């Protein structure tokens, strides 16, 4: 099992999870974070840190493994992030919106740390 970042992170990107990860397995996109499945040690400390419940075990992924695949793909190309950055100023207006990946996701990398 590994943990994965899901739709709720898009355009919110609070980054509280980054600070607690003991193995630095988060990678930053322009408006989304992902977890590198091959690096995650399944400790679960990141899950309760997310204020929008965007982090779940891969056992709670969609039946087709959509989020595991997205996390694995972008962890290969986006920069590693180990320090909490500044979340988007407008994040609160997107906190409880659903279907954000299809509407707002950007494949562009973030700045990393």
Automatic annotation (TrEMBL):
Function according to Swiss-Prot or TrEMBL: Ferredoxins are iron-sulfur proteins that transfer electrons in a wide variety of metabolic reactions.
Record's superkingdom? Bacteria
User: Known InterPro entries for this protein?
Assistant: 4Fe4S_Fe-S-bd (IPR017896), 4Fe4S_Fe_S_CS (IPR017900), 7Fe_ferredoxin (IPR000813), Fd_C (IPR022569), FdxA (IPR054829), RnfB_subfamily (IPR050294)
Q: Which PANTHER family match?
A: FERREDOXIN (PTHR42859:SF2), OXIDOREDUCTASE (PTHR42859)
Q: Which organism is it from?
A: Brevundimonas albigilva
Question: Which positions fall inside the 4Fe-4S ferredoxin-type domain?
Answer: 1-30, 31-60
| The entry's keywords | 3Fe-4S, 4Fe-4S, Electron transport, Iron, Iron-sulfur, Metal-binding, Repeat, Transport
The question of whether Repeat is a record keyword is answered with yes
The entry's protein name is: Ferredoxin
Q: Which cofactor does it need?
A: [4Fe-4S] cluster; [3Fe-4S] cluster
Query: What high-level taxonomic lineage is stated for the organism?
Result: Bacteria, Pseudomonadati, Pseudomonadota, Alphaproteobacteria, Caulobacterales
Q: Report the Gene3D superfamilies cross-referenced here.
A: 3.30.70.20
* Pfam families tied to this protein: DUF3470 (PF11953), Fer4 (PF00037)
- Does the record bear Electron transport in its keywords? yes
